[in-house]
Amino acid sequence: QSDAELVKTIKARIYENKDSDYNVKEGDGLAPMTIDEYVAWRIKPQINWYIDRIKRDYDATRNNRIYALVVSGFGALLSAFGYGLEGLVAITTAMSVALSQRSDIFMFGATYGLFHVTSTKLQNKYHLWQLNTPQQKQNEENIRAFVEACEDIFEDERILWREQAIQKQQMAEQSLQNSISQQASTKMKLRH
Question: pLDDT per residue over 34-51, tens digit each?
Fold first, then answer.
């Protein structure tokens, strides 16, 4: 397949969006978009992605909390059976706490802190844009301000996401380092 045919195939696949009223434009894919195309191809799909992600995170949080309750209930049952199961009770308690904390971290870190805030800002900006008259929507200065405001929202979200990713990585590395140090300390005590 030649490069031109490959480009044409890729464009056809990219623009097979059934929800769009816009046809594929001929060109190199770098032609300027109209404001309607920007909204249809950039803003609306991104808002939908945030909403879907928030729903998925809420569902995952609910499921993790249910799992935590089941695990802690199992631990309570184990403790009722008597002696010799203390280790399993401790493990189920730790698992329950870990599941609860994991769900809270996801919700308060990514969903509330990033996706929910970004989705709200983007929806507010889009709804304010919709209040403009058709003439205002064709004004170059208004278009530029709207697009820049939307892209600033996306950039803020990317920066916050990156900062959170780095922070999570550092926390995981610190936790691993602490675990290794504790194991080494325990081994040293056992030798003496």
Answer: 899 889 989 999 999 999
- As a whole number of angstroms, the distance between CA 52 and CA 137 comes to 28
Q: If we measure between CA atoms, which residue out of 154, 155, 135 comes closest to residue 35? A: 135
pTM of the full predicted structure? 0.62
Judge whether 54 and 117 are in contact, CB under 8 Å.
no
Q: What's the CA gap between 175 and 101, in Å, rounded?
A: 15
Q: Scan for tokens 């969006």, then name that residue.
A: 17
Distances (CA, A) of 57 to 105, 109, 157: 11, 11, 17
Tokens of 126: 């889009």
What is the per-residue pLDDT across 145-191, written as a single tens digit (0 to 9) for each?
999 999 999 999 988 888 877 877 787 777 777 777 776 776 677 67
CA distances from 61 to 72, 115, 120, 189 (A): 16, 15, 20, 40
CA-based torsion, 27, 31, 50, 103: positive or negative: positive
The residue behind tokens 């989705």 is 119
Average pLDDT of the chain?
78
DSSP 107: I
Residue 9 φ/ψ region, left for φ over 0, alpha for ψ in the -120 to 50 degree band, beta for the rest: alpha
C-alpha neighbours within 13 Å on the C-beta side of residue 147: 19
